[in-house]
Amino acid sequence: MAIRDYSLKPRDIYLRQLIAFQDTEPVKVVTGIRRCGKSSLLKLMRQHLLNTGLYPEQILSMNFESMEFREMDAGSFYQYVKERVPDDKRMYLFFDELQRLPHWEDAVNSFRVDFDCDIYITGSNAYLLSSEYSTYLSGRYVEIKMYPLSFREFLDFHGYVMEEYKTPSGAFRKRAYGKDAQAVEMNDLFEAYMRYGGMPGIADVGLEQDKVNVLLDGIYSTVVVRDILERERRRGQRQITDAELLRKVVRFLADNIGNSTSLNTISNTLVSEKLLANRTRQGKPATQTIAAYVGALRESYLFYDIKRYDIKGKEELKTLGKYYIVDTGLRNYLLGYRDLDTGHVIENIVYFELLRRGYDVAVGKVGSKEVDFIATKNDEKLYYQVTDEMIAESTRARELAPLMEIRDNYEKIVLARNVSSTAPIEGIRIRRLADFLLDSN
Hints:
The protein has 16 helices and 15 strands.
């Protein structure tokens, strides 16, 4: 009989990836910001293994956030595992937050060589797979990139059930029902998703701003203290020592999601506001200081940068990329909720949805105009414009203009929260944002 832990919500998009690589040689490395669900994903994988007939003694799980393993080094880690590996059965090893263990890669590589085992790791900092470590494990690991909840997962975690219905005009639309069987407008649910974000833990505290802020404050503090400031101390570096400056950089990036931004822009703004000196006490220019801080925020998976691509010239542009924050709830915690820049928030949501679906994403430049996203995967390429509404004639003209200048035959799509019609315009598809986000494909 199948075993199921009903306290765990499914994260099928990631579980399918782990199952696809089960019993293959590469170490499976799950990465993502803290509290996005990596530990629960490993529990789901262990549950899957037990349901396929494995014995519990074939599974070894260690969480390096626990005091039980806090004093381990690579040698004692290896010995601990060795004592628990049976001689006659394949072993499945699960290691949570392994970046806390110095020289973990030595032990993991030895497990691969010495034991009949399948290895699964999580980490909350890209330093886990920095060039030094990825070279050491070159060709021997596969990365599963995990993000906070998608809109579809958000509805599931908060107990909403969707159904599709046919309107009197013959169109198919979606609606949702809450736990009390009351119908809820999809637009209201999307506004809640924009406001509270997709951190799984919010489902436990409920959609109340004060409780959500307490949870998000804990996540932010953990990212800053453990994954940035502590990591610097462990590495013996002192580039990032000012927690207040780090917060200012975070707030700047959060305030400018979707805007073309350079390190010079950030440093010049902070210098002009007297929040940063032109040079540090060590004589480093402000831009170099900002580069270290932004790099740390990217390594902790709090912010992601996106490059610009010249569609006509078919080349990556080196200047003025953009940054997006991993979770809009964290942005609202940092800046306070406001509905004045909904367009950029929607862009942020679409960007991460494309990443979840396995696309490489870039900003497109076509002449003097900009395409919000170019999404590529294998031989597939899609162009996306993202906007809050496609009702006003001026908005329609603005959003369609860049796509109309692209001369290739790849699909071009406008995603809008509110639309007057979904009829194609000169071959360009118009889609409701909710339909796109809830697309089961």
